Amino acid sequence: MQKDKYLQIFNNCVLSKLIFKHVKSINNVISKNSSARFRWSDLIKLPYVMAGNFYLNELKQYYADHSIYPHLDETFRAIFKSKNLEALKYLVSLVKPISRTKYITANFDSILCSAAEYGSLEIVKYICTEFEKKRLNYYQALIKAPFSGDIEIVKYLNEQLDACDQSRICRDYDYETGVVFDSAAKMGRIDMIELLTESRSDDRENCNMYYGAIQGGHLHVVQYLIDIGEPTSLFPNMDYGTLFDYSIYCNQLEIAKLLYHNNMRQSSRTAIDFAASHGNIECLKWLHENTTVSASVKAMDNAAYNNNLEVLKWLQQHRTEGCSQSVLDVVCTKGYTDVTRWLHENQPIVYQCSQPIYWAITNGHLELSKWLLENRTERPTTSAIDFAAPSTDTWIALNG
C-alpha cells in the first residue's frame, strides 16, 4: 500500500477503529489460514514469512545479515504458493551461483518439485531455465506436477523429461516409477492420466492408481480404471490391505460399493474396525449386511477413542467382538464421561482396567474422577493424589 493512502485511511479514527476491531477476521479472509499471524518481531526473523507475504525489502535486509541456507526450501515454497515473482527472481539470484557437488548445499531438485506442486507454469519454466545447468531431475518434479491442478505444467515437465537423457535416472528410481500416474489419480484427473499414458506407458507397470483414486475420493476415476481394465496390484497394501479394505479405511463407502459390485471384494484387514473409527454407521450397516469382512475389539475401541456413543451402541447390538481390556484407561485420559459410563455398564472386561481413575485425575477431569470414585472399586494411587493436591476441588473430591 502506498504511504499516502495508508495515512489517509489510518488517520481516520472511525476507519482505524473498525479495521483494528476486525483485524483478525480480515486476516483470515486474506490468508485463508487463521494460524498465519505473526508479530512484526517474529516476521522479520522468518524469511519464508517475508517471502510469502511480499515483504521483499525486509527479505533483502534479512539475507544481507544471514546465510541463505536455513529455511531455504520453505522460503522457495512460500514464494511459489504466493506467486511472488519479484521475490523469486531475487532468491534465484542468490542461489544460482551455488555449485552442485556431492556436498549439496541447495537442493535444486527439491526446489523444482515445489515449483511443480505449488507454482504456476510461468514459475516452473523460470526455474527450469535458470537452473538448467544443475541437471535437474524432471522426473521427480513430474511426480509432483499433478498436485498443481494444471495440466500445462504436467505437459511441460513431460516434454522436458523427453528432451533430455534422463531415462537412466528413471530406472535408478524404479521405486518411484509410475507414481506420477498415482498422483494424477489422487487428483481425480483422467485427462492427466491419458496424457501421461501417451508418453510414459511403460511406467504404468508399477503404478497403483486405484489406491490414489480411493485416497482422493474420486469415484469417477475408480470407475474409469475398471472400465479400461486397469490391473490391480497382486499384493495388498501392507498397512491398509486390499482395495476394498482401503476404501473403507478412507471412509469412501460409495467406492467400496462400486468395488464390491465389480467383484473386487477381497479383504485382508478388519474393515469394520476402520468404519468404526470414522463413526460411519451407514458404512457399518452396509458392511454387516452385505459382506463377511471381519472385525476385532479395535472396532469398539476406535469408537470409544472418538467419543462416539452411537457407534458403541450399534456395535453392542450387532457385533460380538466387544472391546479391549485397556480401553477405559484411554477413554478416561480423554475425559469422555458418557462413554466411560456406557463401557462400565455394558462391557464387563473393563473392570480389569488398571487405573482409569489415575488417568482421569492426572488429566484434570474432575467430574469423571468423582464418578469413578463412586462407581468403581479401585482407589487412586498416591501419585494421583499428590498430583491432585494443588487443585482444591479435586483434593476435596478425592478425600470426601
UniProtKB/TrEMBL annotation:
SMART domains: ANK. It comes from the Eukaryota. InterPro entries: Ankyrin_rpt (IPR002110), Ankyrin_rpt-contain_sf (IPR036770), SecEffector_AnkRepeat (IPR052050). Pfam families: Ank_2, Ank_4. SUPFAM superfamilies: Ankyrin repeat (SSF48403). This is Ankyrin repeat protein. It comes from Heterostelium pallidum (strain ATCC 26659 / Pp 5 / PN500).
